[in-house]
């Protein structure tokens, strides 16, 4: 029998990987359409900028490492689209480019490229640009006006901005947005993360396609909801608080698209459940005590560091009896 | 009392050179052994602070290593750590007064708690308390110099880069950069820089190893 010697981790982005990435890219199309309805062509251009720059940077990175570029697996495209959809519709075009550059050159390529990164590149890229240019984040235009945003960045200063539900939660006020508005995405927020109904449909599609796993997303959302119910930040009852916390910011978006990244999540079901719970805890802690109104990308980076440990612990917890029996007999 | 056997020393310059190069570069104290990272992350923000911390580390590490190499094996294990920590604290007290009175009050204030923390830095406890006890004074001193230089090299590079990125200055001189990233002063930037520097060191070593292998194959 021939064994192939290779460095860990051994799960690579293979055919299955490219299929998953294709699924994710399909799902982004309706999110872009919704964003285009509210803000015009500008958000679509921002997402495309992110996509193209990530693919270009990845090709360049592979050439720099003197390896054959393999962009066809689509992981770079997904990274770029994720970064592009989480910036504000008002951000300049270089912002997703900077995020993609950090994601590819600082997080993905030094670890060895697709399938070997320890941290989710999109979350890292987003975290880096959020930290370095906080001024461009968390200022969102009013979607209710229905006027397309100007395409050139110079004309943006006249656009009316509103505080997002996440900012209202952080300042301890009352959210002005009804559940219907939240579900339709008719509230200020990042490009792709506002249309909650569409996001839920996307999540369902990906669950059915088995691109994302129920073991991560459900514990994650349950933890967030539980914490929102236990420690409400808005008046408006239990459901009001849970609804506002889960729909605001990019909590749901990150849970569907970033947390389930097969490269950086545990593989064992118990490890995955613990991973989801821990992620939910970190996200809510970041919201309650963090510097920004939304810290889901920081929380995901933090929980990615625990993935291997949780995987191993989960495996041990399930196989404890068998291990003990084997030790006993030996 | 635990008696420590001194490592054999051949009294040749080659061995001293190897000890020096090992601690300074090939097994760099910060980049490979991951010792003494805290001051780099927290206080390595401007080149001046980096240089001051390097000097303080050297001022503490050299006498501590020499002392522990001479008398360390004659002392019980539980006495060693208190002795070199208290000694280091005394030296740092002098250094702090010197810095405050005759160099710069602002610099001393900006170093905050990280100057006194050098006394209990893992760098000191690991090299003085571990390596020096089991080696003869010449080797221990070489190791202390190499450790200080290795630490100094890393903290100076990191702090110079961070000073340029976050304040647009170098040694207090304005450099007129178009873009300044104040967030580079946060610890995460230092973590990233250290990671890239460690990877760069490994890459250089792998290139050297490949060349040596190739030459061995040619000659053999």
Quick structural summary:
With 330 residues, chain A is mainly α. The model of chain A has no long low-confidence stretch (mean pLDDT 87). Chain B has 220 residues and is mostly helical.
Description:
- The complex is a heterodimer of chains A (330) and B (220).
- The model of chain A has no long low-confidence stretch (mean pLDDT 87).
- In chain A, 48% of the residues are buried.
- Chain A is mostly helical and 330 residues long.
- The radius of gyration of chain A is 20 Å and the shape is globular.
- A two-stranded antiparallel ribbon of chain A has the order 1-2.
- Chain A has 15 helices and two strands.
- In chain A, 60% of the residues lie in helices and 1% in strands.
- Chain A has a single domain, classed as Ammonium transporter fold, CATH 1.10.3430.
- Chain B has 220 residues and is mostly helical.
- Chain B has one domain.
- Helices cover 72% and strands 2% of the residues of chain B.
- Chain B is built from nine helices and two strands.
- Chain B has helices at residues 13-26, 37-43, 47-71, 77-103, 105-111, 114-117, 122-131, 137-167, 187-219, and strands at residues 169-170, 173-174.
- In chain B, β1 (169-170) and β2 (173-174) form a beta hairpin.
- The model of chain B has no long low-confidence stretch (mean pLDDT 87).
- The A-B interface holds A 106, 110, 131-132 and B 181, 183, 186, 188, 192, 195-196, 199.
Q: Tags for this entry?
A:
heterodimer; A: 330 residues; mainly alpha; Ammonium transporter fold; B: 220 residues; two-stranded antiparallel ribbon; 2% strand; flat
């Amino acid at each position: 029998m021939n064994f192939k010697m290779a460095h860990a981790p051994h799960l690579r982005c293979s055919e299955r990987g490219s299929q998953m990435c294709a699924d994710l890219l399909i799902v982004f199309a309706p999110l872009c359409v919704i964003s285009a309805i509210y803000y015009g062509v500008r958000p679509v251009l921002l997402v495309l900028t992110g996509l193209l720059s990530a693919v270009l940077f990845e090709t360049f990175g592979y050439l720099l490492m003197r390896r054959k570029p393999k962009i066809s697996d689509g992981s770079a495209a997904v990274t770029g689209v994720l970064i592009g959809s989480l910036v504000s519709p008002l951000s300049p075009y270089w912002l997703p480019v900077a995020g993609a550059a950090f994601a590819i050159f600082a997080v993905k390529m030094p670890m060895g490229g697709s399938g070997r990164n320890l941290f989710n590149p999109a979350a890292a890229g987003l975290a880096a640009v959020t930290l370095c240019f906080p001024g461009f984040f968390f200022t969102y235009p009013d979607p209710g006006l229905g006027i397309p945003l100007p395409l050139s960045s110079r004309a943006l200063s006249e656009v009316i901005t509103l505080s997002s539900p996440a900012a209202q939660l952080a300042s301890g006020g009352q959210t002005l947005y009804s559940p219907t508005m939240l579900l339709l995405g008719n509230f200020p927020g990042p490009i792709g993360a506002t249309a909650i109904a569409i996001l839920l449909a996307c999540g369902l599609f990906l669950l059915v396609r088995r691109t994302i796993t129920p073991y991560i997303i459900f514990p994650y959302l349950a933890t967030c909801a539980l914490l929102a119910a236990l420690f409400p930040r808005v008046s408006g009852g239990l459901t009001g608080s849970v609804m506002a916390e889960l729909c605001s910011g990019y909590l749901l978006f990150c849970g569907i698209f970033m947390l389930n990244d097969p490269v950086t999540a545990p593989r064992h079901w118990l490890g995955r459940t613990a991973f989801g719970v821990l992620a939910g805890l970190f996200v809510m802690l970041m919201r309650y005590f963090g510097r920004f109104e939304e810290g889901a990308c920081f929380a995901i980076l933090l929980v990615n560091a625990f993935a291997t440990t949780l995987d191993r612990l989960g495996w041990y917890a399930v196989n404890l009896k068998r291990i003990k029996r084997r030790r006993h007999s030996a | 009392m635990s008696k420590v056997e001194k490592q054999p020393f051949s009294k040749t310059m080659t061995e001293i050179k190897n000890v020096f190069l090992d601690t300074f570069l090939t097994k760099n104290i910060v980049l490979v052994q991951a010792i003494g990272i805290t001051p780099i992350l927290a206080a390595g923000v401007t080149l001046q602070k980096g240089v001051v911390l390097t000097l303080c580390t050297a001022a503490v590490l050299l006498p501590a290593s020499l002392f522990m190499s001479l008398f360390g094996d004659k002392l019980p294990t539980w006495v060693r750590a208190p002795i070199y920590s208290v000694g280091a604290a005394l030296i740092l007290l002098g250094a702090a007064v010197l810095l405050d009175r005759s160099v710069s009050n602002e610099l001393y204030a900006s170093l905050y708690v990280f100057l006194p923390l050098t006394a209990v830095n893992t760098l000191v406890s690991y090299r003085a308390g571990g390596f020096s006890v089991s080696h003869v004074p010449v080797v221990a001193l070489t190791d202390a110099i190499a450790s200080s230089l290795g630490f100094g090299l890393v903290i100076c590079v990191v702090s110079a880069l961070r000073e340029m990125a976050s304040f647009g200055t170098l040694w207090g001189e304005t450099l007129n950069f178009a873009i300044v990233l104040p967030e580079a002063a946060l610890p995460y930037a230092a973590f990233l820089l250290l990671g890239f520097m460690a990877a760069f060191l490994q890459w250089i070593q792998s290139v050297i190893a490949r060349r040596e292998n190739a030459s061995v194959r040619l000659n053999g």
